[in-house]
Amino acid sequence: MCTRIATIALLALVIRFLFVRHPVVKKVKGVSPRLTAVAALGLPSLLALLPRSDLSPLTAGLSSGLALLGLIASIVTIQFLGRSFSVTPQARKVVTEGPYRIVRHPLYLAELVVTIGVMWRFEQPWPLIILAVTIGVQLLRMRFEERILLETFPGYREYAERTARLVPGFY
C-alpha cells in the first residue's frame, strides 16, 4: 500500500514539473539521447511481463522496502530538481542542493534502487538482465546529460569535479 501511495505521489510530481518547467536553454541534438532516455524509463517496465516468484515474507518485505526507499528518494530528489526536471537531456538550470550535493544524478540512482527492489519479485535470470541493461543505458544517459550541461553552464565543470556521478567514493 505504501509503495502505491509513493508511486502516485511521484507520478503527480513528475506531471506537475513537466508543465511548470524552466525554459530550455539548450537541448542535446540527435536521436540517440532521446532514445536512451526512453529506454532508461521503459526497460524496468518489462519486469511486469515476467512471471512472479514465490517470495518468502522476508524477501517480499526487503523487496518492498527497497522499492519504497527508492520511491521516497525519487520524490525528495524531484522536489529539489523542481522546475529543472526533464526526461531527455536538456539544459534548464543546474541544481546543486539537497541530494545533488552528494551525487550528480540522485534521481537515476533512486530509479535504480526501485528497479533493484522490484526485480526480486520476478523469476530470475531475466530481471537481472533487464537491470544490467538498464544500468548501462542510465550510464549512457548520464553522459549525454552531462555533456549538454558542460556545454551550457560553465560552473557545471567545477560542480562535477567535486561531486560523485552516482555513488560517493566509488563513481
Description:
The chain is an all-alpha fold and about 170 residues long. About 60% of the residues lie in helices and about 0% in strands. It contains 6 helices and 2 strands. The chain has helices at about 1-20, 30-40, 55-80, 105-120, 125-150, 155-160, and strands at about 25, 90. The chain has a two-stranded antiparallel sheet with strand order 1-2. Helix 2 crosses helix 5 (about 125-150). The radius of gyration is 16 Å and the shape is globular.
Oligomeric state as shown? single chain
Largest sheet: 2 strands, antiparallel
Mean pLDDT: 93
| Rounded Rg | 16 Å
In the sheet with the most strands, the strands line up as 1-2
Distance between the termini: 34 Å
Give keywords.
171 residues; mainly alpha; two-stranded antiparallel ribbon; 2 strands; 60% helix; globular
Q: What's the quick description here?
A:
By secondary structure, this protein is mainly alpha-helical. It has six helices and two strands.
Topology (elements, then pairings):
Layout: H1 2-19, E1 26-27, H2 32-42, H3 57-81, E2 90-91, H4 106-119, H5 126-152, H6 156-162
